[in-house]
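User: Hello, can you help with two protein structures?

Assistant: Certainly.
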Amino acid sequence: MKSARFLAAAAAGLALAATVVPSAPAAAHARPAVVAGATVLSNDDNAHTVIVPSGEVVQVRLKAVRGEHETWVWDVPAASTPPVLTRTSGTVAPGGDADASFRAAARGRSALAAHRHCRPDRGYVCPQVVIPWTVTVIVR
């Protein structure tokens, strides 16, 4: 008797599952914003690859993330291959946002990298975690 009820419940569950329409696939990541001849990268561009022409400016604008008792702040973004992407400026604001500009100086490939870490509010402690952000830039 129990097995008959189990089989009936299982069959009903399978029938219900067959009528569920899968959700639409997530939208593909669009090319980063291009503003007046510059490619602008943000927090959302982590782990992506972008292709830029030689001579173009690549700007990185990373926003700090505020938690309940902490702020996740950035360090200044850096290029793994400076002859390909030459940094022309780089700053970290008191609130933890980071901005940097790079000139696509030569054909090749370079990673842009920055790290986010926790800055606790007074009287609180943060986890000892560092979150990497990396974008691969191909200069053509």
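That covers the first. Now for the second protein you mentioned:
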Amino acid sequence: MTKLDTLQAALESVLAGRIQHLKREHGELTLTVASPDYLAVATMLRDHPQLRFEQLVDLCGMDYSAWKNEPQQGLRFAAVSHLLSVQHNWRLRVKVYCPDDELPIVASVTPIWNSANWFEREAFDLFGIIFEGHLDLRRILTDYGFIGHPFRKDFPVSGDVEMRYDPESKRVIYQPVSIEPREITPRIVREENYGGLH
């Protein structure tokens, strides 16, 4: 029995009816859980002696609209976490979908893994996912006056305003975009001996 088999058996035993989907691909396990079960499952993943995922290594937001250039199937937004068990030397990806596409909300796991703090702020800032129970959920990468969430697939490629420091007024000012939009077409190299290859 491989380490991945042991982990899969432990997950199926400990989490039983709380597993929505357990996918095994490329030597990795991805566990999908329902939003109402997310906090309870995260606690079990950390505390159960058969699992012991002491560390949250990463958490990110996902926008599944037009995933793989195909029309959206199911819910649009998800939070994806990567966990590490130092004790058992194994990893797990945990995925939870936000039940409402218009107002994406899932529970915050910062009470379980405090390393989730800035990761959840980043997912909020870039995708607009609200982490219920997060004590300081505010933007972390974009400007305080920024409108929208730039990693959403429907976010416009170019904006209407730009900001710059104005030395005369000694402050940052906003003004209409001064750069003309342009389309860049990549140059295609079709030389037979390009790069010395024959």
